[in-house]
Amino acid sequence: MSAAASAAAPALKTQSPNLLIAILALALGAFAIGTSEFAAMGLLPIFAADLGVSEPQAGHVISAYALGVVVGAPVTTILGARLPRRRYVAGLIALYGVLNLLAAVLPGFSTLVAARFAAGLPHGGYLGVAMLMAADALPRDQRAKGVTQVLLGLTVANIVGVPLAGALGQAFGWRFGFALPGLLALVAGLLILKFAPRQGVDPEARPMRELAALADPAVIITLLVGVVGSGGMFAVYAYLSAALLATTAPPVWAVAALLSCFGIGSTLGSLLAARVTIRLGALRAAAVMIVSAMLAQGFAAWAVGDWRLMLLSSFLLGLGSNLFVALQTRLMEVGGKGQSMAAAMNHAAFNAANALGPWLAGLALAAGWGWSSSGLVGIALSAAGMVVLGLAALQGRAARARQGALDAR
Description:
16 helices; Growth Hormone, Chain: A; mainly alpha; globular
């Protein structure tokens, strides 16, 4: 942990009322991000029709955001290396709010794509450092709880924020669906500035020190676990609503219920993931989560054709979708002096998984393998993630052996 991070922990702990408000503010920022990211998928048919583009073309708005996250995570971390964490995260979430409001008011499809790309840029940097701030407020063996406290903002967004943004989009126009998270992000920025602890700048902070984290094999292989392992969940979730409508005759409320079931499952899953990570350690917890995801993906493939079972499968997918918690904790362990970069890149890996999984599942569907094939693609990706996780465990064991040999000299 850096000197600044170490100083931050007691500062947070000695301001218990402010600590609660500060963590709630950090979670509110995550809530705004989750609402904006996932509501865009539900708003896609509405803005496609309004802007006169096809739905596949409108999908570029979703891809542009994911690309912005991947590009922005390392860039914002390098630019913010010498900034106090409080001002850094407040500035990023305020920028996120402004860019969402621009997406809501600027005319034309091309400007929407550009605005959504720009909105993705602060995503990884904000969430990565926000989770570090919350984790540093707790004892070292409880840090997964800090990660979960902020992550709950993302998961609750799927229960409350995404349906609300979708309802606003349907009732008043898709632009309101982007304006809502934009305003929430600005409020979060103000609360963070007011209530988060003031910290000095880490005198050892250097942009190149943060960038060096990306050369660490332990960091790289952990990120790869996230890209491949989380890709399985996205392979299934991306096509779940379409499969529901194509293979069943559900009631009109079923699609909204499907999304809410996923949000409820992921919220409960994040709480369980923190407990499992604290009890078993990051790598073993990651293995449990990947196996849980595989079981959920298999159930989702079997459930296609029965809308009731598909609602249950959505809940189970959410419940098993929290590999992120264990991997974020692992990155805190191996990130060394580049923890901000490692944490931000975990969100980039998550968005890379969001691109990889649906792309591979789309290939299976285009090949005529049927709606159940997305579940089979998900299982294959999760199995590959388990293989990479095994490599991560071997790499960690070898690193400990080398360090033990050096200490014995």
